[in-house]
Amino acid sequence: MAIYELPEWTALGPALILAVTALALFAFDSISPRSTNRQLLAGTAVAGSLTSLGVAVWFTVAGVGTPTADGGNGVIDPTHGFVVDQLALYFMIIVAVVTALIVVASYDYLVDHAYQAEYYSLVILAATGMSLMAAADSLVTILIALELASLPSYALVAILKDNRGSVEAGLKYFLIGSLSSAIFIYGISLVYGATGHLELAAIAEVVSGETEAGSGHDITEMGGLLGLGILMLIGGFAFKTASVPFHFWAPEAYEGAPAPISAFLSSASKAAGFVVLFRVFTEAFPLGEIGAVIGFDWTVAFIVLAIVTMTLGNFAAATQDSVKRMLAYSSIGHAGYALIGLAGLTADGGELVMGAAMMHLLVYGFMNTGAFLFVALAEHWGVGRTFEDYNGLAAQAPVACAAMAVFMFSLAGIPPFGGFFSKYFLFVGALEAATASTAMLVVAAVLVINSALSLYYYSRLVKAIWIEDPPATRDRLAQPTGLYAAIIVAAVMTIVILPGFGPVVDAALDAAGAVVG
Amino acid sequence: MEGAFSYAPAIAAFPLVAFVVALVFGKWMPKKGAIAGIAATGASLVFSLWMLAAVASGETYHETLYEWTAGEAASEIGADTIGFSFGILIDPLAALMLVIVSLVAFLVHVFSLGYMNAEGETGLPRYYAGLGLFTFSMLSFVYADNLLMAFMFFELVGLCSFLLIGFWFRTRSAPSAAKKAFLVTRFGDYFFLLGVVAIAATFGTLQFAGDESFVAAAEAAIDDGGQLFGFDAETWVTITGLLVLGGVIGKSAQFPLHTWLPDAMEGPTTVSALIHAATMVAAGVYLVARMFGYYALSPTTLAIIAFIGGFTALFAATMGVVKDDVKQVLAYSTISQYGYMMLGLGVGGYVAGVFHLMNHAFFKALLFLGAGAVIVLMHHEQNMWKMGGLKDKAPVTYYTFLAGALALAGIIPFSGFWSKDEILYDALIVGLEEPLIMAAYAMGLLAVFFTGFYTFRMVFLTFHGEPRSEAAEDPHPVGWSIKLPLIVLGILAVVAGIANLAPVAKLANVDITFLEHWLDGEYGGIDEVTYSAYSELLAYETGVISSEQVTVLIAAGLSLLLAFSGAGLAWKLYSDPEPTAHKERLGSAGTVVEDNYYQDEYQVWLAEGVTLPLARVADRFDQTVIDGTVNGVSTASLFGSSWVKRIQTGIVTNYAALLIAGFIALLLGLGVYGGWF
């Protein structure tokens, strides 16, 4: 398949397909605002996300981003401010997978719900933003893509207009998001001020001293300024990935939002945040050179953030009563795990640890989405929110509960599920990086301690579902096809990603190697 | 004989198949698995004889069949790889042992038809499955080509022993005896395992034979005069050898780990004959013979082996004197006889030890099966004081039992005499130069008297005199399946001595020491594991009294004299038609002996008085310190959790403040770190 016969802009295909889908949904809603043709709406959204997924996979297999020396088609520069390489495609796949799963699941969740078309188009629009985030390589396009992902998310969190929690969560999310965006934009302007560039590659050239800063000053004189800008960028990304201290929105937003949206935000949105984080820091601020400019390697910041985020997320999750809130905090904890991917980078290596973080995000896309979708199923059943309300569900819905057990154990990192392998690679990668920086030993230790703690609250849920007796008053539970299908696909993927790990490992390591090297 | 050895794995595989068949289909089979067992052990016997013939024609077999793991290693002598494998080593020793084991197993299976099936036992599939698994494990142990494989099957025979002792698991005593056997032998095996690990870590190999063997490596290390793990090479070989010896002492029921064997008589008598007399108990002694080259490198270990052997021979024989249960007498006699074998090996009498191992397997299996026949005759009565007068009512049983008894007592010309005499002769000539060995010899010699006494006490009480119970007056008839094995073993007990008539050879100067030639690899063998190779390694000096012939005569004369006096005393005391007990005459000594020198009591005390308090301390440590730490961690985590949870107040202005505060903290921290200010 000769991809180069296509025009270069088509390399953004996965994102463009999502954009077109979103617009089509908008158009349909404008023409027929009161339509209740749910099949058509959901079907369009599913088709769009699956097509996006298919194209992204096809591009990956066809060798987009693979260096030409290895027989690939090389990195494609579709237009100013975007780049399509292995990293971009890898995360486009994650985004598309999660989108497809939650769209399928939403079909049942949204029964008797107003604003169906808005819902789907907002989801797809947010997905478009996330997909573009994966490919953006200029601070401007990054900002735009990020806001494109964020703004629909705010609306989606608050879409249950009759639900006070949902509206309140939406508002909180919006306020914290605005604050974070302000900090982020300020960071961009500081970086621009220091280097005179917005494109990542150009920034890198200034940082490494190959070209002069736009202002004509020596870049080393502006170390503090650039450092402050970098920290503020970190703030913006920390918001998107729900990392400490920009995580405050997450528990409330995840808890208040419709469960499929919680799944969407905690999996796809987080992954999108991470891809930008990976790209900006590996491309714009090369390790080894950045230290001379700002006085330290930015890995220090990520070591601190990773430790704090892991610990806070897991500790706060341990004693939650509400299942959804527990998952929200666990999601913060997992952001901490993924941050190790940046904390463990070194000037001349770190593909393993970063590849591991990327694998973890992929597996997380299945297991965490699945877990939230199970919560969506429980909300659909109307059984309640707390652990106790979940007691004995397995007796009535064994298949879904088996899937939930898989998600929980995979999240905790128990073999043979996918979550074990990605966490294991993270651990190995952290230990490998410890040869360069002993602080990584602390990170590895904290990872282990937090995993152990996480097993406590994950297994608590499994115990409630499988071991406790169900309350006598519970009615028969329905089996909504869409939700079930999405949950089962997520569970199967959580398990079979293990045999499939060979290609996934290669893809992640290639992608990591491409940006790190 | 070309290609015979490619069938070697089948020898062990047949009983394994029988095990599976008996276990799975036994319930529906006409004889509940007996037929399968007999067929399998019969086939094993035929194949073993074939192997024997192949070795006799000058071939040997040493092949690694399956390497289950291999990798890099850092061994003490510098070998940088180690492999763990299953392999087969068939040399004269192994071939001989294969035949012994499969023959006894076959006969015991046949005997079981009469002893178990005909007596209407339930749970027979389990019984035959156990026998099959045991035979498989034992045969595999015998031709194992490396120490780890030997260890694994050593453990497996121990498991089978446990299962079969506890066959009548509904009684109180059988499960308890099974547990005791398991625990006591396990205690020894613990040292064995340490020895295996130590040898592997030292030499990077566990092979018994060949250039790559640990024996060759140990020899080279001693020649180099280097240090191993901070010890002199020879000292280290002694230490590891003694560790392995721990397993031997447990399995072959040597002092002080002999206490399990008498209790093991709770199992069916057939099991006692096969496992606790002829084969499994022999595994310990066989292991010493198997790695004799290693022990030969360490005179200290050999002396310890000899001394333990001599002491056990005497010690157990004295206890056999006062027992009333026919199986108990035989149990102590077994312990005593294995003591002789250890004595023989310990003084460098490799041929003598193996010779006695073979003879003992035949005559002790015979005696146990004979006792089994008596038990059937007596309607399951085992107390000898309730027997008597069976001589005329069961002539086949009597005469075969008598042949076994004569062999056990060491009366010329029965088989036991020749091998025991050879052991004592070997001990004597070494003892003339080494006082410690002389002491071991003296104990072994004195044990001959007791052996003669308890053997014939048993014969007289059981078969002679007037019947002393209703059962004895009207014995239950026994069938061909009981008589046939007795006859076969009876013949062997009489004639097996021909294999190595060493005294005759020395006196008449004729070359009839066939077993010595066999073990020396003159028909076929592997160079480093032959008798003469071992003899070169031995550091013993030997002496003679005036001349070799005179020494032979003195040794044989002394042991015969003592054997006859023991037997004679038994005749004098117990050959009355109505014999009376003479135990009171022994006074307080008799009580001590009857209570087995309080061996069980002190071992129980060790367990309850020493181990249990230690275990309690460990348990308390676990409960308080370990669990306390774990619980503390969890309490601290949950407390921390509730504290962390409190940050999330739900008020968005707080969030904004905390967010900015966190950001500023990060900024200040990194700013100071990066020197911005």
From TrEMBL, chain A:
Domain NADH:quinone oxidoreductase/Mrp antiporter transmembrane, chain residue ranges per copy: 136-447
Signal sequence segment: none
Topological category with respect to the lipid bilayer: Multi-pass membrane protein
An annotated Gene Ontology molecular function: NADH dehydrogenase (ubiquinone) activity
Gene Ontology biological process terms in this record: ATP synthesis coupled electron transport
CC per GO annotation: membrane
Database matches in InterPro entries: NADH-Q_OxRdtase_suN/2 (IPR010096), ND/Mrp_TM (IPR001750)
Compartment annotation: Membrane
HAMAP family: NDH1_NuoN_1 (MF_00445)
Name the UniProt record assigns to this protein: Proton-translocating NADH-quinone oxidoreductase, chain N
Organism: Natronolimnohabitans innermongolicus JCM 12255
TrEMBL record, chain B:
Domain NADH-Ubiquinone oxidoreductase (complex I) chain 5 N-terminal: 80-128
Membrane topology, as annotated: Multi-pass membrane protein
Membrane is among the record's keywords: yes
Localization in the cell: Membrane
Protein keywords: Membrane, Transmembrane, Transmembrane helix
Alphabetized NCBIfam families for the sequence: NDH_I_L (TIGR01974), PRK06590.1 (NF005141)
Official protein name in the record: Proton-translocating NADH-quinone oxidoreductase subunit L
